[in-house]
Fold these 4 entries.
Entry 1:
Amino acid sequence: MIQFVTETGSTNADLAARQRAGEFLVEGDWLVADRQTAGRGRHGREWFDGLGNFMGSTLVHARPGDPAFPSLALAAGLALQQVIAVHVPAALLKWPNDVMAGTAKLAGILLERQGDAVLVGIGVNLVSAPQIPDRLTAALADFATAPDRDTFAASLARQFDIEIERWRNFGIAPIVARWLAAAHPQGTLLSVGEPGEEPLNGVFAGLTDDGALLLRLADGGTRAIHAGEVRFADPDR
């Protein structure tokens, strides 16, 4: 079921509040908003809420034998990239949670653990993209006719269900392989570091077996990155 609401603070926050209040949230159901007044990205950044874009959340419950929860980011990314690629064939994944058109961000995913579940919030620039001083953004409408928001929501919900079943039934290894095939190529220059930190620069060298980013450094060593802000690096720096 997809529940559509005209306006809310944050679809992730709404699902979290409902779960804390004792409501059992059905896995596979979605909450989708026309507008968000308090949407959040990583580090609490404001989540752009342009009317006509997709802003929605769902939830995945832990089950015995599930792969490690952090690998959900890869499965969610695959679902999102495949739905976007119908409209923007060149759409690529960037670790851990973005879908890109070249170096411009089209969509992002926010995963938040709550008890024995993970809330999965997704934002997609369907018809418009925010203007952000320090990064490039794009909308699907920049490349083709943007899909209707409700139609996009239904396609994403179906593909997300498929990817979660694959994640559960076949484990992380095929997810990692398919994620790599849908991502920017190995050798891409990357910069890793949280805001205010000195960035760690290197080249994309794939993923570990559990889905961490592998960064090859200038000294020839390789670093496994399990969390952090990842950007495409300036080749002239």
Entry 2:
Amino acid sequence: MFLDPILSKRVRRVIGLSSGTSMDGMDAALVDIRGCGSETSVRLLAFTTLPFRPDIRERLARVAGIDGGPSREICLLNVEVAEAAAAAAEEVARKAAVPMEEVDLIGSHGQTICHLPGDDPRASLQIGEGAVVAERTGVTTVSNFRARDLAAGGQGAPLIPYVDWLLFRSEEEGRALLNLGGIANVTLLPRGLGLETVTAFDTGPGNMVIDGLSRILSADEAPFDRNGDRAGEGRLVEGLLTRLLEHPYFRERPPKSTGREVFGETFVEQVMEMGRALGASNEDLLATATELTARTVAQAIAVWVADPASVGRMIVSGGGIHNRTLMKRLSTLMKPIPVVRLEEMGFPSDAKEAIAFAVLANETAHGLPSNVPGATGARRAVVLGELVPGRSL
């Protein structure tokens, strides 16, 4: 088997690449991985983020809009996102002073531009051609992770719960792993139990609505509410929040996932329109959007966790950890459950998803399933991703 030189190594050096729904750049994590399956252990060597060029980000936002984009633009971006991924892989290797020749695998999520888990047929599209990444870096690359889960009847998301279980399960306490990306998602790890007990789902918007409002209100000068400062100056508009909480997604039973198609530009425009009608200032709009994220996370735990008291702590990662107003509200709403950052578990919060795709690539190379049917709704566990051999194989 052509993967034997990789699989025979006691320690594999793997790069994970990810770009989330915020579309702000490419995250890259270089890790050492020992073992596979339940025996997996990971050591982070380096993490970096390379921002997308402004023109790429603008075009991504256009093709990822509710009405989609022209096929030619998608085709070009499929290669350009892959070039950005390859550059991020090379940069994180340089940062760790590791020659690319010593990297065994790359797991590249690419950029989601359309996610339709509720359609018939279910579909999700990530761009960032794995063949380009493999050719530029010379490293065997695993990409297109969501397609097989979709084919098995799942939603293709969330994909991280398997890695959450591998790295963060505990015999002593139940844990909720919350990622605050553009969309917020939570993985629930019961104390001392197996993978078959793990559940996970998207709770709703994470940073997406906050960032969308910030961009519009600042005429594109502030792509996000830094530290949550502007939200901290605003007041909660209860009438607006009540209407937003009536969105049908929040009442859907897991497994469920969502994306920009539901909480993207059109939703942000509706928030602005309703808020202005209620006399909301710019700061009030941001305060209410921030509360929407915190409230829907807390409600998801209260409603969809059979025994919320079994959750020993909530461990948070993703860009939303830098929003102090959001984190403060989460801590208040989740009491008595402590809310902590992923750093308490020995990993940088910003690097988690990139690390996860390195781990998923390692599982794929070993021929091991890594979706979680309890999270995605798939009929069965399946091996994820498509593999492109590197130049040395």
Entry 3:
Amino acid sequence: MRISFVRSALLLFVLATCVAGGQRSPVSAGLTPERQAMLDCVSANSLRGHLSFIASDLLEGRGTPSRGLNLAAEYIAAQFRRAGLEPAGDDGYFQTAMVTARGADKPEKVRNVIGILRGSDPALKDTYILVTAHYDHLGLRLAADGTTTIYNGANDDGSGTVSVMELAGALASGKVHPKRSIVFMTFYGEERGLLGSRYYGAHPVVPVAKTIADINLEQVGRTDDTEGARIAGVSMTGFDFSDLGPILQAAGKTVGVEVSKHPRNSDAFFARSDNQALADLGVPAHTLCTAYVYPDYHAPGDHWDKVDYNNMEKVDRMVALGLLILADSPTEPRWNEANPKAARYLEAWRGMHGGVKQ
């Protein structure tokens, strides 16, 4: 009885610590108390605090390359360090590359930021799930009147960036890590043609053949979709390209978030974010998005105070549960052999696995 009491007391302490300033969710059907405790570490207030810095004027729109981008990278690395993630770059948490700014002559310490939550299972810990987002945006732009305008990029993709940080802290808070290893990574240069994710694809820090999935987070903060309010729901790009969708749908049903296929944008937007770079290598990789198009998309008005943080908390808790399900499952997501749109990715998967069938 003493052991049970101590364990219960410890769990209550973790819950109280993680949700200070917010409401604790009731334990949902199908969730263990330990998993629920991790989900409850995802906090709207914490997400707001992170994004108010990442999308502040101080970071000048996080252009690639720029001083603001470097500041963002340091902040992300600090959060990975706080969570206790294992550094996975060539320079601590940083995977370094060189990029030339538009109009410049010489290249400049652009960096992907990468940390690993090492798995707990002796066999499955050598397989990996990626959780990704791009932390760059459009930077500074010269307006017609000669003034300089900051494109803060709060939703695109500050929202995905702070979600990766928040998820890292939540999943690292458990007493026992998930069975598979989870790689938390933010990319530079998405707005310049997937530069950071393409660089990672050419210089992976974990074996691509052992990478079972990539869940990329893009524009998960704004709910004022031009098609109407988007509450408690996300769309997955390339929804039926693989069987990852139903896995996330199951997680969504548990926490009250609908994961669906947008009739037009799910397929059309598949190639418009960093998941594409991983899919080209054969990794089942998709992007989750709350609002594909919204007021201020790629405009100066995309500010942090327009984000629906309570909704983002709910979406991120769904992602957290989906990651736990994937990480603890003995089976891996597969490309859909019946969908011709997935054929090139299936061939890439077979190529990196020596031509074997899924």
Entry 4:
Amino acid sequence: MLMAAHIAVMASGTTIGSAQPVEATGVPINETKIINALTGLMRDNARLHNRNETIAQEFITQNINLGPEEALRSHVIEFAADNLDSLLTQLEPYTLVLSTTQVGTAVWKLVLTSAIGNASYTTSFNFSGISQAAQYTYTPGLSVSLLQFLSNPLIAIVLFLVGMYAVIIGFKTPGYGVEIAGALMVFLSLIGFGVIGISIAATLFFILGIILTLIEIKTHIGIFALAGIGLIIFASFLAFPLPGWELLSARAVESARESLVAVALVMSGIFGFVVYKVGQARRMKVKSGPEQWIGKAGTVVSALEPRGEVRVEGQTWKAESIAEPIKAGEQVEVVSREGLVLRVKPKQVEE
């Protein structure tokens, strides 16, 4: 990466070199095909940026190492700087130009602006005044921090094992949500193992969050709605940065994330309100049919011995006492309804 950069810089106490390829297990690769391919790539990048091709090759073939002073003398880097302000100050007198060699190949060169003169080049970038330019710092988002945590092999393995056992336990003891927590752990472990990308994980979390909120409609437990909303908001954070985010400003990325989270919160709130109202409606007493008369108070029109008539909410009904006979004029309470007959009992007088 350093050899492919237009401007290479090292700080004090740093080292560059030892670029021989290795296996994932750390065993060095000595196959000629691979070594030659990487050596050619390193050499061509050095040539493209007007750097020392011999040293670039020896980084791979000899595993040499250079500090900033040696790298600067060997023309492997352009500057040595310990902070950004120092780098910009050193860079200010220069211009980066793309010129063509005698054989027709392109070369990037960093030259003093005062020495350009009538030099021939096709593209140039003048760094005059760059030390006064505004500096913006991009802070890695939640997705980057999450990937750093999950990429730890130990964390990924523990999440996978615990998640699998939680799924099994959840299926054996349904109703506690253990299987949901287990599935979440397995998803996170798959991200750490690199099986699924973070964008796919965000989509899965969105889907899982919606499924949990739908389950809440059926169960009315409460925990499913909270878990669903939490997963939807979590997925909203993971959705950025997306591929191509580096083309956006830090503020644009942050604004996009805030907008997405706000929409997720609003929609989750609306959905939660609907779920609450549905549950509330299911708990309400039925307001139509025979059940609507249960608990109503009425007055006996003709004595119930045990059958007679009562008046309830202005309507006269045939009625039957479920207890002792009830005299005319006394208050009764409807217990049930059978067809067109109300079954009643004496109304308790409140003291």
